[in-house]
Write a structure and sequence with these properties.
By secondary structure, this protein is mostly beta strands. It contains 3 helices and 54 strands. The longest helix is centred in the N-terminal third of the chain and has 13 residues.
């Protein structure tokens, strides 16, 4: 009987429904959900502020001025002029209006610090060379002083008519008389680097690196530690009300000149490269942890919040909260006094190295990777959230996309098969009746534009369902077990979606079109015994068919099959006919189902002797054999036992008596 090729999947499904309830499938609908600040923070925030519990809102607008440098390490404002100190090549710029122009180059890799001279010029401390320069309003540069045993001038501060310089290594603070150009040690910190100077209530606070401490210097030579911190460096200090706020980094962020490298592709050069922004920013992250600590004037000290983006740079404080730039990740964070952290800005550049504060919050931002100045003010020209590339475990069909929020929200998606997204991805498409229109793929990105000033995105849920993939039968073997007198069928299968599998096992005689069932239900095990008692001798094949019908609807379920190597069922013994003539034993061994593989003879119970095939090879179901008998067997009467073995291991025996006048 010829089997109906369409019948088997239906049979599997029927057996599956009878055997067990439906199993949970990896291809059942699932969702990516964005419900917290941590969820949204993994994406790209363009013109958005991110609250840890209350979603995304439109951030203040930014106006960008590009600076032809790798990073802005320090800045000082003098009236309408904004001075910038940069690296990797040490240069000094002036920003007036929306233009930045270079006014001086310095003999060091980095301008470490700046302060106004009060006459339209600046003093600049160098990193990599213990010099302090004077640059006048026209850009004329001269060396003010070279400090002894100093490699880095990290901070400058005008105090009491003199210029203070925080230096390293050695952790000394020098006082410089700008008139006489003479320098002396003003305070010693007994640390590796004096990194920060901050004037506070008539005293000078020094933040250190190596052993991170906050040291108060009330007068020359009178230094007192008022706080110490876990980590590696005090990066910045700010005051708000009755407490000081201190940015602490957990690994040495003191610049090592050999680590300064230029950024090949700077943001702003090519707007099409914005798609790779998240990857570039991720590459700039890591390398340590940052935290903001608070010290009350009564001495209380505690960590206010840890940075969600690693190392921190400059800190500021206003009624808006504690504002800090992220030295890794390109974000500006605002922490409230309860420790909640809002991402206020997420810039294309990899680092925010400076924040200028006003009464209501940040007014200017300074960046690295690469250098730019951002002025804060007015509404944001663009406010959009772009998710990270969302990766499914297989090809997925996209479903509904749900948003929770207020105001005007415009939602688009695109899909593809590469990370990061590139030109092979589909174009951005809007939703239709809240359903995603992007084609099935393994990856998806979501973009939500907050298109009104009052818009807020609180939650985002993206539904998907994997396209069902077919199972695989990875092995199938049939072995005869002598002890149990059965053929043991073993197989192994897996489903890439984790679906529960069921099996139908059938067999047939080789050459037959009809497969016969070996069980009466859907089979769940991966081993089965097959008795040969009711099977005529011959060559057979086993077929194992695996189905995921218990976990999928009939149109989407899969059935796969694998056929074993042929195996022999041979329960009949070979027959042997033999005679002795002219001193030679000759005969024929015959088996109805398989090849004769061996013929041997025992003389009078002695160990057997092999006989050779008459044609030289035992390779057929009927084989002639012969053996020249030893001369002593021609005398007297002897008994010969002749055994023939077939390839199934069955043995046929005949007995022959020779001598005494004949053979029988």
């Amino acid at each position: 009987m010829t089997r109906n090729p369409h019948r088997f999947p239906l049979l599997l499904l029927a057996l599956a429904l009878c055997a067990a309830p439906l199993h949970a499938s990896a291809s059942e609908p699932k969702a990516w959900s964005f419900v917290s600040g941590d969820d949204f923070a993994k994406g790209d925030l363009d013109g958005l502020a991110l609250h840890p519990h209350d979603g995304l809102t439109v951030a203040p607008g930014l106006t960008r001025t590009e600076v032809d440098a790798e990073l802005i390490h320090c800045w000082v404002r003098d009236g309408k002029r904004l001075w910038l100190g940069t690296g990797v090549e040490g240069r000094i710029f002036v920003v007036e209006g929306d233009k930045a122009r270079e006014v001086a180059q310095v003999p060091a890799a980095l301008v470490g610090s700046m302060v106004s001279d009060g006459r339209g010029g600046i003093y600049a401390g160098l990193v990599g060379k213990g010099e302090i320069l004077h640059v006048d309003a026209g850009g004329k540069t001269e060396t003010l002083v070279t400090l002894p045993d100093v490699q880095h001038v990290w901070a400058l501060l005008r105090h009491g008519g003199e210029l203070l310089a925080a230096t390293g290594p050695g952790g000394k603070v020098f006082a410089i008389d700008t008139g006489s150009k003479k320098a002396r040690v003003w305070a010693e910190t007994d640390t590796e680097h004096a990194l920060v100077l901050f004037e506070d209530k008539g005293a000078v606070l020094v933040g250190t690196a190596g052993s991170p401490m906050l040291i108060r210097v009330q007068a020359e030579g009178k230094a007192q530690a008022i706080a110490s911190f876990p980590g590696a460096e005090v990066r910045s200090i700010a005051r708000l009300g009755d407490r000081l706020f201190v940015a602490i980094n957990g690994n040495p962020d003191v610049v090592k000149l050999q680590q300064l490298r230029a950024t090949p592709d700077r943001p702003g050069k090519d707007k099409e490269k914005r798609a790779t922004k998240a990857r570039a920013k991720k590459a700039s992250g890591g390398g340590g942890k940052g935290a903001v600590w608070a010290r009350h004037d009564d001495g209380q000290l505690y960590q206010l919040f840890g940075s969600p983006v690693g190392l921190l740079s400059q800190i500021g404080a206003s009624g808006q909260g504690v504002v800090v730039g992220a030295a890794r990740g390109g974000r500006v964070l605002v922490g409230d006094l309860h420790g909640d952290v809002t991402t206020l800005f997420d810039l294309d550049e990899g680092a925010v190295l400076g924040v200028e504060m006003g009464p209501k919050g940040p007014t200017t931002l300074f960046t690295g990777r690469s250098a730019a100045v951002y002025r804060v003010g007015g509404p944001s020209a663009r406010a959009a959230f772009t998710s990270e590339v969302l990766l499914a475990s297989g090809v997925a069909r996209w479903g509904r996309l749900e948003t929770l929020g207020e105001g005007k929200l415009l939602v688009e998606t695109r899909s593809g098969f590469s990370n990061p997204a590139n030109d092979t991805w589909s174009a951005w498409q809007p939703l239709k009746n809240d359903r995603i229109q992007s084609p099935a793929a393994t990856m998806l990105q979501v973009r939500v534009t907050l298109a009104s000033p009052d818009a807020r995105l609180r939650e985002l849920h993206v539904h998907r369902r994997l396209l069902n993939r077919q199972p695989q039968i990875e092995r199938l073997e049939v072995k005869y077990e002598e002890k149990g007198k059965v053929f043991r069928v073993n197989w192994g299968a897996r489903d890439p979606d984790g679906d529960k599998l069921g099996y139908v096992v059938t067999y047939r005689r080789r050459g037959s079109a009809q497969w016969l069932m070996l069980h009466d239900r859907f089979y769940a095990k991966t081993s089965l015994g097959l008795s040969p008692k009711d099977m005529p001798d011959g060559w057979y094949e086993i077929r194992v068919e695996a189905s995921d019908a218990q976990s999928n609807t009939p149109p989407e379920s899969h059935v796969v099959a694998r056929i074993s190597k042929p195996f022999l069922v041979d329960q009949g013994r070979p027959t042997v006919v033999a005679e002795v003539k002219d001193g030679t034993l000759a005969g024929v061994a015959t088996d109805a189902s398989s090849r004769i593989v061996r013929v041997e003879v025992s003389f009078d119970g002695e160990p057997t002797v092999l006989c050779g095939a008459a044609d030289g090879v035992f390779d057929g179901g009927q084989e002639a054999f012969e053996l020249r008998l030893p001369p002593d067997l021609l005398k007297g009467t002897h008994t010969l036992l002749i055994q023939a073995t077939d390839e199934a291991g069955n043995v046929g025996v005949t007995r022959l008596v020779v001598g005494g006048g004949g053979a029988k």
